[in-house]
Design goal:
With 361 residues, this protein is of the alpha/beta class. Helices cover 32% and strands 19% of the residues. It binds threonylcarbamoyladenylate (TXA) and magnesium ion (MG). Residues 35, 37-38, 40, 64-67, 100, 102, 114, 117, 119-121, 123, 143-145, 182-183, 185, 197, 232-236 line the site of threonylcarbamoyladenylate.
Length: 361
C-alpha cells in the first residue's frame, strides 16, 4: 500500500483533505493524525473490523484496549453509558486537552476496542486538526499512538512514517506535537476519588484542584516494572517506548547536574572497558560538564533541554530516544528528571524505556 503524507494546519481545516480522511475512516481504513500529545493511528471506533486493522498495523497485543477520541461533548454521549458528576467536572476543567477519562461503555462500542472491558477510555484532543478529522468522520475515532508496538511514540509525521510507511493509506502532518507524552489516563472511582492510571500533562497537582482524593495506580508509583505490578491500564504492563540499544537511567538522590555527571563518568568508564559505545540523553547543564571531559563524542551527547524546563523535556524525549536507533551506539544513558508535575509522566516513560534499569548512586 502506498502511504500519502499531507501537510495540514488549522488554517486548512476546511480543505478537501479532511473530507478524504473522514471518508477513509468511515470506509474502515486507517489514518494517522496529530494530537497535542503524540500522533495517533485512527480507525472508526464503532467498527470492530476497522479497529482490528490497528492491532495488525502496530503488532499490538489484542488484550490492550484502545481509547476513543471525540470532537465534542455530545459525542461522549454516543459511547458512554453514564457520565458521573466527577467525570463531568473533569470534562469541564480539562477538555479539550491531554486527558483520557475511563467511563462505562455503551453496547455500540465493540469488544475489540475495549479488550472485553465494560469501560471505555474517552479523550477530546486539544488539536484543531484532530477534532476537524473526527468531525469529518462523524464517528468517534479509536487511536493508539501511531508507532509499532513497544517503540517510542511518534511526535512528528516523519516518526509515524518510519513505522507505518506502506501499512496505512494516509498520514496527516501538522508538525511536532505540543506535549510529546501521551494523555493522562484517569478513572473516577468514587464520588470524589480520581485514580491516575497513566501520568501525563494533566498533572496530579492539577487534578488535586478538582478533588482532594487523587491516587496513583500502584503500578505507576515509584519504579515498579512489568513483573511486579498489575496496572489497571492494561497497556502499562508492556515494555514500551524502548530504543534499540539498552537504556539506563541516572537518578542521583540529589538531582544536580554535578551529581549526574559524576555518576555518568563512572558508568561510562565501566561500560567502555566492555567496549560499549555510549550515547547520552541529558540536560543542557550536564551536557556542558560532560562535553568538557571528552569521554563521549559530542554528536552522541544529546540535550533534552534545561533541567527545570519539563515541558521542553517531555516534547523532546521520544524523538531523542529514537535518534540513536540509526547509530552504532550499544549503551544509552538518560538523566532522570524530578517526579513532580510533568516530571512524573517523563519519569514513567523513561523508566519503561529502560525496562526499570535505574541507577541511583
Ligand atoms: O495521548 C494519547 O492518549 C494518545 C493519543 C493518540 O491520543 N493515545 C494513546 O493511546 O496513548 P495508547 O493506545 O497508546 O494508550 C492507551 C492506554 C493503554 O495503556 C490502554 O491499556 C489504556 O489506555 N486503556 C484503554 N482503555 C482502557 C480502559 N477501558 N481501562 C483502562 N485502561 C484503558
Ligand atoms: Mg502507545
Amino acid at each position: 500500500m502506498k502511504t500519502k503524507i499531507v501537510k495540514v494546519s488549522s488554517k486548512t481545516k476546511d480543505a478537501k483533505i479532511f473530507d478524504e480522511a473522514g471518508r477513509l475512516i468511515r470506509a474502515g481504513e486507517l489514518v494517522a493524525f496529530p494530537t497535542e500529545t503524540v500522533y495517533g493511528l485512527g480507525a472508526n471506533g464503532l467498527d470492530a473490523a476497522a479497529c482490528r486493522k490497528i492491532y495488525e498495523a502496530k503488532g499490538r497485543p489484542s488484550d490492550n484496549p484502545l481509547i476513543l477520541h471525540v470532537a465534542d461533548r455530545a459525542m461522549i454521549d454516543m459511547i458512554a453509558a453514564d457520565v458521573s458528576p466527577l467525570a463531568e467536572k473533569l470534562i469541564a476543567s480539562f477538555c479539550p486537552g491531554p486527558i483520557t477519562i475511563i467511563m462505562p461503555k455503551k453496547p455500540c462500542v465493540p469488544d475489540s476496542v475495549t479488550g472485553g472491558l465494560g469501560t471505555v477510555g474517552i479523550r477530546m484532543p486539544d488539536s484543531d486538526v484532530c477534532r476537524a478529522l473526527i468531525a469529518a468522520a462523524g464517528v468517534p475515532i479509536a487511536a493508539p499512538s501511531a508507532n509499532i508496538s513497544g517503540r517510542p511514540s511518534p511526535t512528528t509525521a516523519e516518526m509515524v512514517a518510519r513505522d507505518m510507511d506502506g501499512r496505512i493509506p494516509l498520514i496527516l502532518d501538522a508538525g511536532p506535537c505540543e506535549f510529546g507524552v501521551e494523555s493522562t489516563i484517569v478513572a473516577c472511582d468514587a464520588d470524589d476519588k480520581i485514580t491516575i492510571l497513566r501520568p501525563g500533562a494533566i498533572t496530579r497537582e492539577m487534578l488535586l484542584e478538582i478533588t482532594s482524593d487523587v491516587e496513583l495506580d500502584p503500578a505507576i508509583k515509584g519504579t515498579m516494572t512489568d513483573s511486579d505490578a498489575h496496572p489497571r491500564a492494561p497497556g502499562m504492563k508492556y515494555r514500551h517506548y524502548a530504543p534499540k540499544a539498552p537504556l539506563a537511567l541516572i537518578e542521583p538522590k540529589n538531582l544536580t547536574a554535578k551529581n549526574v555527571a559524576a555518576m555518568l563518568i563512572r558508568e561510562i568508564s565501566a561500560a567502555k572497558s566492555q567496549d560499549k559505545k555510549i550515547g547520552l540523553i541529558v540536560s543542557d547543564e550536564t551536557t556542558k560538564i560532560i562535553e568538557e571531559k571528552n569521554i563521549v563524542p559530542k554528536e552522541y551527547i544529546k540535550s533534552y533541554g534545561h533541567q527545570c524546563d519539563l515541558k521542553a523535556i517531555a516534547a523532546n524525549i521520544y524523538r531523542l530516544l529514537r535518534s540513536f536507533d540509526d547509530t552504532d551506539r550499544t549503551q544509552l544513558y538518560a538523566e532522570a528528571t524530578t517526579r513532580d508535575g510533568l516530571g512524573l509522566a517523563i519519569m514513567n516513560r523513561l523508566t519503561k524505556s529502560s525496562g526499570g534499569n535505574i541507577i541511583t548512586e
